[in-house]
Specification:
This protein is mainly alpha-helical. 38% of the residues lie in helices and 0% in strands. The chain has five helices and no strands. The chain has helices spanning 5-13, 40-45, 53-58, 106-118, 124-144. It comes from Nephila pilipes. This is DNA-directed DNA polymerase.
């Protein structure tokens, strides 16, 4: 993702969370895309199954296969904290990205449905938490193998 200088300035000067409006205080928000050679999706794809040591330490063996790839998230759909209470995965159309101009693929949406079902997700908030946790674990494994 390439930001214009103005967009980067705005991103770096934010003082509160867009969703919950709480102050960011001393939180650090770095975009890994600024210092990694490509997207996390591609970096994860290039790892071997044996490279996911951190993920394996944090996810049960019977479910890990679902997280050995970058997940999908309806970034633009989640524009209100109340959406975390929704009890079903949003429709595929909710995963459209104006940033990339792309719709989610049928394969990726099926994968998200499988994750929701297998992990017995009860709300979009739980899906969010799993997405963020898996993203961090995948990024940690990428760093360990960098």
């Amino acid at each position: 993702m390439n930001l214009s200088p103005e967009e980067e300035e705005q991103f770096n000067s934010e003082t509160q969370c867009y969703l919950c409006k709480r102050p960011l205080e001393n939180d650090c928000h770095l975009n890994s895309f600024l210092f990694l050679p490509t997207s996390l999706r591609k970096l994860v794809h290039n790892l071997k199954d044996s490279d996911f040591n951190i993920l394996k330490q944090n996810v049960s063996q019977d479910k890990i296969h679902l997280l050995l790839r970058k997940g999908i998230y309806p970034y633009e759909y989640v524009d209100d904290f109340q959406k975390f209470s929704e009890i079903a995965l949003p429709p595929a159309s909710a995963f459209y990205s104006t940033l990339s101009g792309e719709h989610v693929s049928a394969e990726d949406y099926e994968h998200a449905k499988n994750v929701w079902s297998t992990f017995k997700i009860k709300s979009l908030g739980e899906y969010h938490d799993l997405y963020v946790a898996s993203d961090v674990l995948l990024l940690a494994d990428v760093f360990e193998n960098f």
